[in-house]
């Protein structure tokens, strides 16, 4: 390329044009666009957050602002926009801007090309839960996807968040990066990171941190109470170390466990997890073990789902939700690994590991939905069914990937070990997915790619195993557990007493049916949830301890019930049955062969044969 000098007249014209641009636009090199949030909680007793969103440098005629309809990690529509109140739009000088709400979660602001837009609105909170924002007199839980709007087309834009705590509150716990020199101020490189980084505000307690692979791990929470805190941190360090040993890499700068108080549930994030927690969970061996399983689950999610992820789970669709057939991998295999990680960390014994898996098998096998719904369907339909399947009478038509997912993962693990002479395992599948798709390709994997990785590791076709995923084929427990020299008791045993198949509660002197077992005598007679039992054998139902009375009868006995069903009184005659149950107890075989013993030992310890 050759360079030629401008003629003088052209130079003058260019300078005039440059001056015109500078005076008309405020500078040729306009200030870069910015997004800044301020969230305050002036009257926490009202349960209302005040949000200020300032956008600079966009200069569009109109801008659409959206509130997400869900938060990643909780696969249900939550429609956060319904809690937005007192919405206002202003220019940078405080002059009101016209706006309209164009659908349930979108506000269109007519900016007339103004470079500065300020939104003010309130968010009313109602429920203390990990997947919803919450504020009360003692703490504020800021779930970014439930309080911060995003400009359409700007999800990749960085933002700054300033917290204005209630006057007496001193602490903020979050995985967001702090802005140096600015108290309670944090920054995010994009909205995906922002929405993945909850904040807990209040007078919080922080336990002494630990390090793994040079990375700091913190535990910060609300009203932690009294328990052996040193022991908990030592146990968490063992869980983190076992997880890092499994994958072979630690991807974050630091990690924070954020305990938000009593309740139920937890949600995973890239470098943090938020979860409900009380000191009562630490004060007996059984509940403490459940808590460690739970924390291992949420921690391991930073690998499995946040980084080892189905391709549908990122970039996220905050407007519609992100459906996938592969939640059985993201959630079900994480349940499986929460058990294995505790065993490998020395925090549970062999019997406790087998008992945890036995409970999963029983929970799955006791659901008639196993004959109707596949793992793929349960994964995809969780948006309508819920993570644990449908409720009410429809519970009989669905399963939970939390039940079947870990079982299928176990079958994969033992089968791969068997096929490879215990030289490979499901661990190799997880490591390969992490290395190939997260580290190398920096994307999620498809269903076909997941299957290919499994079959490449196994060295053969795994059609039998994938039938457990894509169909309702019965799982051959005996065959797969035999690979590790394990026996499972599948014999059906008769439960003493008669069986009707209902669960009841007493409400205002009425006996109300709360659940009916599928295909039980009660089900076959037409009884359903919410029916009210008025009489039993011509006597008022409230006069009987209903459950005990059934058990005192013999199978084949006749019982006459008068019930109120959908506002109509009915008389039903039922024949009590007998119930058969399986224990699914899992025990080592006394005469296991050499390879079976090697597979069992390798599985328990997280090792493979050389």
What does this structure look like?
The protein is an alpha+beta fold and 610 residues long. It has 4 domains: 34-202, Immunoglobulin-like; 207-300, Neutral Protease, domain 2 (Orthogonal Bundle), CATH 1.10.390.10; 327-486, Neutral Protease Domain 2 (Neutral Protease, domain 2); 494-582, Roll (Pdz3 Domain). The chain contains 17 helices and 30 strands. The protein has a 7-stranded mixed beta sheet with strand order 4-7-2-1-11-14-13. α6 (327-344) crosses α10 and α10 (401-419) packs across α17. It is globular, with a radius of gyration of 29 Å. The model is unreliable at 1-30 (pLDDT under 50). This is Peptidase M61 domain protein.
């Amino acid at each position: 390329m050759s360079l030629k000098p401008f003629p003088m007249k052209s130079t003058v014209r260019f300078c005039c044009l440059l001056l015109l641009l500078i005076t008309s636009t405020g500078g040729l090199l306009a200030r870069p666009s910015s997004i800044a949030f301020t969230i305050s909680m002036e009257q926490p007793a009202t349960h209302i957050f005040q949000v200020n969103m300032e956008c600079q440098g966009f200069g569009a005629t109109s801008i659409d602002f959206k509130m997400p309809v869900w938060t990643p990690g909780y696969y249900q529509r939550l429609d956060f926009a319904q809690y937005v109140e007192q919405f206002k739009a202003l220019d940078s000088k405080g002059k009101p801007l016209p706006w309209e709400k164009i659908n349930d979660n979108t506000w269109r602001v007519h900016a007339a090309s103004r470079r500065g837009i300020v939104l003010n609105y309130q968010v009313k909170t109602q429920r203390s839960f990990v997947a919803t924002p919450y504020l009360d007199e003692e703490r504020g839980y800021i779930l970014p996807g439930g309080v911060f709007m995003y400009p359409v087309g700007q999800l990749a834009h960085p933002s700054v968040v300033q917290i204005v705590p209630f006057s007496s509150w001193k602490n903020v716990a979050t995985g967001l990066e702090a802005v140096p020199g600015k108290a309670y101020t944090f920054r995010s490189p994009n909205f995906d990171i922002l929405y993945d980084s909850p904040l807990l505000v209040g007078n919080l307690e922080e336990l002494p941190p630990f390090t793994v692979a040079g990375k700091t791990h913190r535990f910060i929470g609300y009203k932690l109470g009294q328990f052996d805190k040193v022991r908990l941190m030592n146990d968490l360090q063992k869980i983190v170390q076992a997880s890092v040993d499994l994958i072979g890499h630690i991807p974050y700068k630091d990690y924070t466990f954020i305990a938000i108080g009593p309740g139920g549930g937890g949600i995973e994030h890239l470098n943090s997890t938020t979860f409900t927690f009380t000191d009562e969970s630490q004060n007996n061996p059984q509940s403490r073990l459940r808590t460690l399983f739970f924390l291992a689950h949420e921690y391991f999610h930073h690998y499995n789902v946040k980084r080892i992820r189905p391709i549908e789970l990122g970039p996220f669709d905050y407007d519609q939700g992100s459906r996938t057939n592969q939640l059985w991998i993201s959630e079900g295999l994480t349940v499986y690994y929460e058990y294995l990680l505790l065993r490998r960390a020395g925090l549970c014994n062999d019997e406790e590991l087998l008992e945890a898996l036995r409970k999963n098998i029983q929970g799955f096998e006791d659901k008639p939905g196993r004959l109707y719904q596949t793992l793929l369907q349960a994964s995809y339909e969780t948006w309508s069914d819920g993570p644990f399947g449908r409720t009410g009478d429809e519970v009989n038509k669905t399963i939970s990937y939390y039940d079947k997912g870990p079982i299928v993962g176990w079958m994969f693990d033992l089968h791969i070990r068997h096929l490879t002479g215990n030289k490979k395992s499901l661990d190799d599948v997880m490591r390969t997915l992490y290395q190939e798709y997260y580290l190398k390709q920096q994307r999620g994997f498809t269903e076909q790619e997941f299957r290919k990785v499994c079959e490449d590791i196994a060295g053969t076709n795994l059609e039998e195993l994938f039938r457990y995923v894509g169909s309702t084929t019965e799982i051959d427990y005996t065959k797969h557990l035999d690979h590790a020299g394990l026996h499972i008791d599948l014999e059906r045993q008769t439960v003493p007493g008669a069986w009707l198949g209902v669960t009841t509660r007493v409400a205002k002197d009425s006996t109300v049916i709360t659940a009916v077992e599928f295909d039980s005598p009660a089900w076959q007679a037409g009884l359903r949830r919410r029916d009210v039992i008025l009489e039993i054998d011509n006597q008022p139902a409230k006069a009987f301890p209903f459950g005990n009375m059934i058990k005192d009868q013999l199978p084949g006995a006749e019982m006459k019930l008068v019930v109120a069903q959908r506002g109509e009184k009915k008389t039903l005659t039922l024949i009590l049955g007998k119930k058969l149950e399986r224990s699914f107890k899992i025990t080592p075989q006394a005469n296991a062969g050499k390879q079976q013993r090697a597979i069992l030992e390798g599985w328990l310890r997280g090792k493979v044969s050389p």
